[in-house]
Amino acid sequence: MFITLFLLLLKTISGNTSLSANVILIITDDQDVLLNGLKPMSKTVKLLGNKGVIFENAYTNSPICCPSRSTILTGKYLHNTGVVNNSLSGNCSSVLWQKMHEPHSVAPILKKHKEYVTFYSGKYLNQYGHKSAGGTRHVPEGYDWWIGLKGNSIYYNYTLSVNGTAKYFNDEYLTDILVNFLFCFYFLFKAIVNEIWLSLVVLFQKEYSLDFLNQKFITQTPFFMTIATPAPHQPFTPANRHKKSFPGTKVIHTPSFNFSSKGKHWIVGMPPKTLPEDVSELDKFQKLRMQSLLAVDELVESIIYKLETLNLLKSTFLIFTSDNGYHLGQFTQPYDKRQPYETDIKIPLMIRGPKIKKKSIFKRPVSLVDLAPTILEMANIKGTDYQYQMDGKSFLKNIKKFGEPSENDKVFVEYFGETNEREFHEECDFITDPDVSHCTQDAWCKCSDSKNNTFTCVITFLNNKSIKFCKFQDNQNFTEVYDLKTDPYELHNIFENFNKSLRKYYEELLETFKNCKGNQCNF
Ligand SMILES: *[C@@H]1O[C@H](CO)[C@@H](O)[C@H](O)[C@H]1NC(C)=O
Ligand SMILES: *[C@@H]1O[C@H](CO)[C@@H](O)[C@H](O)[C@H]1NC(C)=O
Ligand SMILES: *[C@@H]1O[C@H](CO)[C@@H](O)[C@H](O)[C@H]1NC(C)=O
Ligand SMILES: *[C@@H]1O[C@H](CO)[C@@H](O)[C@H](O)[C@H]1NC(C)=O
Ligand SMILES: *[C@@H]1O[C@H](CO)[C@@H](O)[C@H](O)[C@H]1NC(C)=O
Ligand SMILES: *[C@@H]1O[C@H](CO)[C@@H](O)[C@H](O)[C@H]1NC(C)=O
Ligand SMILES: *[C@@H]1O[C@H](CO)[C@@H](O)[C@H](O)[C@H]1NC(C)=O
Ligand SMILES: *[C@@H]1O[C@H](CO)[C@@H](O)[C@H](O)[C@H]1NC(C)=O
Ligand SMILES: *[C@@H]1O[C@H](CO)[C@@H](O)[C@H](O)[C@H]1NC(C)=O
Ligand SMILES: *[C@@H]1O[C@H](CO)[C@@H](O)[C@H](O)[C@H]1NC(C)=O
To answer: Where are the membrane-spanning stretches (predicted)?
Structure first.
């Protein structure tokens, strides 16, 4: 009887408290899944992936940070967020974005509908903190706790906006700092718990165990937490304690490594046409990337440990993913993302949480646009206007069902090639075309982007096949098509084998996707 009274009282104190799970989203930066990107993450795989679902076919909808992160936050494709690149002029954390999209991103929706306590720490959008877009005083709507990294991923000497106040950090390794803030978050819980406990002690006797109170209160105060690490983004700086790990690591020589073929779009075929013999620079990058991920692995472990001691592990969804993938030497492109190939668009994704089956591999394709609606479903928010405005759809129910990819499964990718706004290839001064970019000396002056490296792709899973169809917006309307089942490394462009009706089918699919909005994107 007392217990019932207790619950009733708690309900009045904390409003409508129908059960909602906590959600923790961990986002890495540029972590591939096809070039051993998960090798340094053994704890994460063991504690998160193997205790839940590992996705075999998870994709980004744009292989570049800011557009992809904007999609994660909103559940909308690039053409609906308007975030086309990493610049302010391309809407990356722009004033327009702040006005039009930030208030409709997942955190404010959770707050509005379920009174979630919300927390963000780490890299947000590349231009976050820019003085012409509110600086670090700008705290995105819907966050109670805001620890946002100013600018792009970096490991030392960075500025964090702590609830809107800029704080400079010099020699504290960023990934580790994110864990420290996590512990602060834990203390926040303790503080609230103690407050309520005191008010209840006045009303009832002390015998009600703190243990019980702890659990009941916390399960009735759902939280949404995002932790976005800089790793393994360039400059790939590992924590000092990890600098000796993975000795002798070499870049992965996939069949597509240093492979130059005719069927690729313009930028890939630009000179130098092959990699040099000595690619120790790329070997070093591979090693540093893996080393920098070790601190992320420790971060995930400490979160899971903390949840366990708080007895929250069973009521918390943990999502681990990355904004996009990465390539190192594939198709003679030294290092970067921004290409439509699997290395760049496939991402790690693992989810554990309430009612999610352990140790399972999920084969059906999903993409980051689906994450926000999935998180809303985890929070038990149904049928709100917001969900219908999102382009993605929740896959929470599907991960309980499994099965092979279905005819309706499709992945859509769009990318806008960047030009060179600022730097003018000091080292590679023979390249004077302003419409190409990211040509650096450590990449042997091979450019990794250009204005006409602008493309859309669709991947279909019809008839037990997996076809990737990509069309470039260049002066050739260049098209690349791959049969991913028979040619997983995308060595053979089969566009020429496609007859008129097949071409028409895929071109129409691309057009439909490019113009879709909300529910229309699910066909
Ligand atoms: C609490 O919210 C849930 C769904 O959010 C709703 O179904 C339920 O009726 C609400 N209960 C009260 C007491 O308001
Ligand atoms: C920036 O975003 C707004 C709103 O989404 C959109 O109208 C505009 O076209 C975008 N700008 C660019 C350059 O795409
Ligand atoms: C941030 O703000 C929240 C309340 O909105 C507060 O509880 C918390 O202590 C603040 N965090 C820091 C690190 O100042
Ligand atoms: C950080 O800045 C300090 C000077 O403020 C400099 O000595 C140090 O080398 C910098 N660290 C890194 C990793 O850039
Ligand atoms: C890449 O291919 C070129 C041409 O075949 C060759 O000279 C070079 O040694 C290769 N580099 C690597 C790292 O395999
Ligand atoms: C980003 O997009 C905007 C709008 O299309 C464009 O003006 C700007 O040059 C782009 N930035 C880069 C680096 O390409
Ligand atoms: C689909 O292809 C896989 C091999 O790629 C095969 O094992 C499976 O039996 C096929 N399924 C159907 C329904 O044909
Ligand atoms: C792509 O753009 C570059 C730079 O402007 C230009 O030289 C090249 O001809 C273009 N290629 C295609 C296929 O459009
Ligand atoms: C490219 O496609 C556009 C419209 O889709 C068409 O107008 C143009 O002629 C095409 N160019 C080439 C070189 O095929
Ligand atoms: C085009 O190719 C597809 C698949 O191979 C086939 O089913 C279709 O009949 C072909 N259409 C024409 C017009 O040849």
So the answer is: none
